[in-house]
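Below is how a single chain appears once it has passed through the pipeline. First comes the sequence as given, then the structure the pipeline wrote out for it. We keep one example in the README because the format questions we get most often are answered faster by looking than by reading.
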Amino acid sequence: MEPILEVKELTKDFGGLRALDRIDLKVHRGQIVALIGPNGAGKTTFFNCITGIYQPTKGEMLISPGGKEKKSLNGLKPNHVTKSGLARTFQNIRLFQNMTVLENVMIGRHCRMHAGIPGAVFRNPATMREEKQVVEDSYRLLEKIGLEQYVNEYAKNLPYGAQRRLEIARAMATEPFMLLLDEPAAGMNVKETKELDDLIVQICHQEKISILLIEHDMKLVMSLSDLIYVVDYGKKIAEGTPEEIKNNPDVIKAYLGEEVDA
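Resulting structure:
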């Protein structure tokens, strides 16, 4: 089966600095794939290219949501990438802090709404039905993520781990076929990280949304991932299963420091 995301020789230059150097990467349906490497290795730049924040200097970025017809992401703006079915979270939480939990998720649904300016102005029945449906769908998503108890709380008042989960919920509200998670466990305690581990598995296996994540928590990466890509100074130096990466001497020396218990 064709990969649902295929990146070929992705290269990104910033002036005289080459941040990404001919990176190849594939994600297949139903996979959880991790991209690891030290700070400054180019991981977030890779995400920014895929999601349209940066345009690559060279290379191809192709998606195939149905596993057949391919579509290029090259040249697409971030909102068009989202409509194509890729959603992401950020290393630094980017919630609307003075809006409620429900409102944050509803904003994620905006790209799937059909009402235009006339509908918003004149409040016709179709627009009102659609808005009602958005509220109901957003609440059901909060139930799946385990945040329904916070539905009317302001985002800024949530515990840190719950804010991280809310950002994932807002991304899921766009109805993606793939989620790109940029360090989702950053700042979490052990309990929150375990809950995140369970949530990512749930999203992939129950909601049928494939996952590509950047993460420094190696225990989380090793427990979750079907496949791991390792980058250093913008170059891919290894790819393989957690067991293969765990036992790769170069990876252990450069990134893990020591063998990690799965």
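The chain has two domains: 1-85+176-262, 99-167.

See the next section for the split statistics.
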